[in-house]
Design a protein that fits this description.
Oligomer: homodimer
Shape of chain A: globular
Strand content of chain A: 5-15%
Strand order of the largest sheet of chain A: 1-2
Structural class of chain A: mainly alpha
Helix content of chain A: 55-70%
Order of helices and strands of chain A: HHHHEEHHHH
Distance between the termini of chain A: 62 Å
Largest interface: A-B, 45 and 45 residues
Radius of gyration of chain A: 18 Å
Chain lengths: ~170, ~170
Amino acid sequence: MKETGRSGCPINLTLEILGDRWSLIVLRDMMFGNRRHFRELLAKSDEGIASNILADRLKRLLENGLISRRDDASHKQKGIYSLTEMGISLVPVFAAMADWGRRFLPVTPEMSIRAEILAEGGPALWERFMAELRFLHLDAPRPAQSVLDDLTAAYRDAVERKRAAEAEPEVA
Amino acid sequence: MKETGRSGCPINLTLEILGDRWSLIVLRDMMFGNRRHFRELLAKSDEGIASNILADRLKRLLENGLISRRDDASHKQKGIYSLTEMGISLVPVFAAMADWGRRFLPVTPEMSIRAEILAEGGPALWERFMAELRFLHLDAPRPAQSVLDDLTAAYRDAVERKRAAEAEPEVA
DNA sequence: CAAAACCGCTTGCGATTTGCAAGCAGTTGG
DNA sequence: CCAACTGCTTGCAAATCGCAAGCGGTTTTG
């Protein structure tokens, strides 16, 4: 909790915590990719975050209450990072950002399929997704159906379709 | 348009453009404070942006198509910055971020009143606000009623109430 | 009509942050 | 016992940030 000397505006305060190139990437991978260990977040990211940056961001996200950390019982060195309610509550922010990005920026189709589903599902879907995240990251009961599975399946389908299209460039 | 070598994920692409401490602050002041000149953005900001940073951000926002710039007919040195449709479309992102910030961060009451109104108004209100921004920044027709006036009036009221409360610390 | 204020924006410079590569002590599985 | 793996740190060069001052030109003011 350092003194920044800036204003009490909600937009400004949000930017003081999340206004950099990597914090939201880390949270995105935890949220949509269910990556919970340091190495998972480090290696499986499409953007290739550096290990010192990742360590720093995890520390800052911890300090600010967006994530929590506990030891992995199955491996004495591993830590498991989880989203807190504060982190889970970013779902609408991700949905809004992703929808804006897919409309105005040169996104790839397979990377924007999940943004599309979230935009079409609207707040009702976001709420179901957040309930699922509370099950995965907190101690909430398992919800009836899984939004994350739907999102992941749609993404895998899109990747698979792209691979198939590239393997067979011209349709006969 | 520089090559960053990162992914085509909408979240990532959005962060490559807006993922820093100042870009969204500048857009916020243009959007909610209707600040259109360099000096207005420089001096009237609650956060005190440096002039070189402001110049750099305006340039980047121009390059990325979020704002436009034209000369001020009434003053040969002034330029007028306007939001483009791409910039106006960030309204839902601001609404989501502001709502998250006011729920989880130590915002001041008078700075969060607008976030509250936007959250309660929901997408219908956002759409009316965007129509008004198209009138102020593009060449769209004037909408029936002004959301910005409502937001600004609510903010002024909150500031006034705070000033009154501070002038008379203890209620008799 | 000259001085003062204001205009957008740049420059210099020290401090901080970033990105990359390598490495570390401890743990696990074969 | 050793190779692979764990989370995370260190060194270092490059980029960025933040502050202060200033620049050529325009407009306002006394």
